[in-house]
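User: Watch each token:
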Amino acid sequence: MSPPADWSSTLVYLSALVFGYLLGSIPFGLILARLFGLGDLRKIGSGNIGATNVLRAGSKWLAALTLLLDAAKGTLAVLVAARWGGTAAMLAGFGAFLGHLFPVWLRFDGGKGVATFIGVLLGLYWPAALVFCAVWLLIALVTRYSSLSALVASAASVGVLAVTAQWRLGGLFLLLTALLYIRHAANIGRLVRGEETRIGENKL
């Protein structure tokens, strides 16, 4: 006797969420920094495990690789789960983002989610990901604040989803943007006080 359809769907959705979480929780920045002799990222610069802090640790190419891998895990989670439908893909993307922010391996203290946000967005609706990148680059060139660039770009991507009537995706990324803002609370405080570190500055 086969299980009821609703139970089968629940299992698929739960599996997609868990798969995304486990994939997203891989701390590539921390792993790469240790492998290539940069030390423990949690004791360097901002203490964050993402690409920006890898850059502060002194390696541009490792920072670029960290950015790529942190984005790729979001995209991969979405693309793998998409075979079971759009809802599964969205849940996997949500899981990947949560995994990066709150990885069980690091006592739920992870990164800030910018690269993984882009990766999930790329997998679910690539035009909005292009807008995110364009806005990020523009703000970064003008202000040289990585955090401000991410905050503005994430809000812009939600606007794109709303304008293009991607309502379910808009709801998901509104939630992801809220979480991203929460993770950047300290950065927002430093921006208000004029104390935020600019791109290219090293405060180790």
Q: What stands out?
A: The chain has a mean pLDDT of 90. The longest helix spans residues 60-81. The chain has one domain: 5-193.
